[in-house]
Amino acid sequence: MNRREMILRAAAEEFAEKGYAATTFGSIGARVGMHRNALQHYISSKPELAAEIAWHPFRNGRFLEPDAPLTGGLRMLYRVAEYAAEQYVSDVFSRASTRLMLERDRVPADLPVLYQGWIEPITVLLREAVAAGDVDENVDVDDLAWRLIAAFTGLRVMSEALDELDRLPQRVARTAEDLLRANAPS
């Protein structure tokens, strides 16, 4: 790992743990053993650094989604839910990006909008599940997509608050299964 990558990882850890306002070049420098002024050789400003961290998980075109075609109805919905939770738990850049997106009003930089890219793919998968007979045809799939994302968000927030982040993937999988089973054909 080169020096710039070390700085980015340290910054991601700081942003994930402390948020934008409490993260400083000094606190990042302390993590990598550099003086805060030396960091500016690699990153010119805190907003630029925050933007780079926030966009980091999107480099492959997706955020918290498996690198597979998003098709396959319920099977893929379960995979997306599980994968998103696993990534959030294991990847500090995903956690930092999420926190920065939540704090976007405090960050003077262009940041992605949290969950915006999830609504359409999940709605498409739900429509596939309706067509396959796995979800009741009378279900408002747009609303159900929002509720699935909201459930993920609530579980993520609770898992962090109660220091049980390691259990997030199992809880997300069970909750998605429960919500989808509740909307199965009678």
Helical content class: 55-70%
Bulk shape = elongated
What fraction strand? under 5%
Number of helices: 9
Instruction: Report the major sheet.
Output: none
pLDDT averaged over residues? 93
Q: How would you describe the oligomerization state of the chains in this entry?
A: single chain
Based on secondary structure, the structural category is: mainly alpha
Q: Sketch the topology as an H/E string, one letter per element.
A: HHHHHHHHH
How many strands appear in the DSSP assignment?
0
Distance between the termini: 54 Å
- As residue ranges, the low-confidence spans are none
Gyration radius from CA atoms, angstroms? 19 Å
Give a verbal description of the structure.
64% of the residues lie in helices and 0% in strands. It has 186 residues and is mostly helical. Helix 1 packs across helix 2 and helix 7 packs across helix 8. It is elongated. The protein starts with a helix and ends with a helix. The mean pLDDT is 93.
Descriptors for this entry?
186 residues, mainly alpha
Q: Layout of helices and strands, plus pairs?
A:
Blueprint: H1 3-18, H2 25-32, H3 36-39, H4 46-55, H5 73-90, H6 92-102, H7 116-131, H8 141-161, H9 168-182
Provide a short characterization of the protein structure:
With 186 residues, this protein is mainly alpha-helical. The chain has helices spanning 3-18, 25-32, 36-39, 46-55, 73-90, 92-102, 116-131, 141-161, 168-182.
